[in-house]
Amino acid sequence: MKKLLNTLYVTQPDTYLSLDGDNIVLIREQEKLGRLPLHNFEAIVSFGYTGASPALMGYCAERNISITFLTKSGRFLARVVGESRGNVVLRKTQYRLSESEQESTKIARNFIIGKIYNHKWMLERMTRDHPLRVDIDQFKAVSQLLTAMLQEVRSCDSLESLRGWEGQAAIHYNKVFDQMILQQKESFAFRGRSRRPPKDNVNAMLSFAYTLLANDSAAALETVGLDAYVGFMHQDRPGRASLALDLMEELRGVYADRFVLALINRKEVTAEDFYQKENGAVLMTDEARRSFIKAWQTKKQDKITHPYLGEKLSWGLVPYAQALLLARFLRGDLDEYPPFMWK
């Protein structure tokens, strides 16, 4: 269990939620795991849906406490809510701001500030931890460029210029990404980002990691009552969770890229885990994908201290913390959205 900003996260699998007086009771295999007063919470999020009693759902609906059910992997299943007063106002604010280029830019640039900052931190850490394995001068030069770009992003007043600086930062970051691959260089080389389809083993892993991160981000946004399909930087497109793509920008490097690099460098994946189709697309085998997801779920349990909240939480809850902070900003509780800036 984890209480975060008045939200209770039930992360143990196969946990049943029930009501006892004014308390929520968590039960697993007929054993009580915990009993907590419901008046402390605004929302309950359960990973690995087993069930909840009708009495609990009715109690929470009457008191405007949402209950969200996710799969063990974090995919959104359903959300039980009462009167939609808060969510209606929140979403109307989201839609209104998304229609304004000026307001969208103010929000979107904080996503990109977080992304560039985290990329810079990754490069600095590589020069510290592996000074004999990487070109320190090149890494330091790229780091300095990213620092300069952060200043430009902070003053961006249009989405076009913001996308331009984000693209430039990505180009420089990708130039040194291959050096962060320290093992299995013959099978895992990065020569640039290829998406649809991925053309090599590294891009196949990155694409899969980004898909998982996008799903986690979309689930987090739905959980706090935001519309995952209406973004600020990514434009609306049918079937695309644009706000989830916005939210995950600051987590791509520090969350997904580092995860992929760790699997390669620890030799938890090998060349045998991939195959190439006739059109040149490189895909992971079914067994490799299962192992990838298992490792992804394990990674989510690693504990960190959130740089803005100062609270201990697992990596898997970072998208939910950021979604909560975004919702609080849109409600007017925060002066601006605080990006996830890790170091």
UniProtKB/TrEMBL annotation:
Domain of life: Bacteria
UniProt-listed GO biological process terms: defense response to virus; maintenance of CRISPR repeat elements
Record keywords, A-Z: Antiviral defense, DNA-binding, Endonuclease, Hydrolase, Magnesium, Manganese, Metal-binding, Nuclease
Pfam families: Cas_Cas1
EC number of this enzyme: 3.1.-.-
Keyword DNA-binding appears in the UniProt entry: yes
Amino acids binding Mn(2+): 166, 234, 249
InterPro entries noted in UniProt: Cas1, CRISPR-assoc_Cas1, CRISPR-assoc_Cas1_C, CRISPR-assoc_Cas1_DVULG, CRISPR-assoc_Cas1_N
Entry cofactors: Mg(2+); Mn(2+)
Gene Ontology molecular functions: DNA binding; DNA endonuclease activity; hydrolase activity; metal ion binding
Family in the record: Belongs to the CRISPR-associated endonuclease Cas1 family.
Function: CRISPR (clustered regularly interspaced short palindromic repeat), is an adaptive immune system that provides protection against mobile genetic elements (viruses, transposable elements and conjugative plasmids). CRISPR clusters contain spacers, sequences complementary to antecedent mobile elements, and target invading nucleic acids. CRISPR clusters are transcribed and processed into CRISPR RNA (crRNA). Acts as a dsDNA endonuclease. Involved in the integration of spacer DNA into the CRISPR cassette.
Subunit structure: Homodimer, forms a heterotetramer with a Cas2 homodimer.
Protein name: CRISPR-associated endonuclease Cas1
Gene designation: cas1c
